[in-house]
Amino acid sequence: MKLVDDFDEQRTLEELLDASKPPVPAECQHLDYLLFTPFRYAARGDSRFRRAGRTPGVFYAAERVETSVAEVAFWRLLFFIESPGLAWPANPLEFTGFVARYKTELCLDLTKAPYDADPGRWTHPTDYSHCHAVADEARSLGATAILSRSARDPASGSTVSLLSCSAFDEVRPRRRTSWHLMLSPSGIYARCESPSKTLVYDRSTFAADPRVASFDWMRG
Hints:
- This protein is of the alpha+beta class.
- The chain is about 25% helix and about 20% strand.
- The chain has one domain.
- The chain contains six helices and eight strands, in the order H-H-E-H-E-E-H-H-E-E-E-E-E-H.
- The strands form two sheets. A four-stranded mixed β-sheet has the order 1-5-4-3. Strands 2-6-7-8 form a four-stranded antiparallel β-sheet, with helices on one face.
């Protein structure tokens, strides 16, 4: 709205911007953008169950909001770790939390046998090779979801990684909430106003990751 004069111009500008983006996969076009976005874009780098590049998309979620917030907090922190000249933000970062319903006939549960024999393979802080291999296995079996433990949540909450748009049981997300993350030399503070919830991550929370363990939290 800062660039245009009215809502019609805003809509036109948004349509022009959207036309410049990669096409939404045909099997995802009926979904809300919050659901199809991970399947639309190439991955800039490796993630837990997805290789970098124009590889099959993965929608990362969690069973509990606390797990999702911990994951987001870690990745926001990593952004600043990898941007040494960037000062801590003066204002809180804003995020939207939401609920998405899914249904799948086949999923891989890495918390159960035979996958739980060496659980560290699935939660290694930097080595995703085992996770990429099991994601390949899941797709070859026709599974559309992977259940696992969060590598970042201090409580090791359960995560849900959807491998296909077909896993969504509804076309729109439910129960959107607003979250604010504040990063500072003392750690990360996450706050949701309604329903009221506060989560705090101090310097040691994510220190199992060597990039965090060696990070100098004192910056401008």
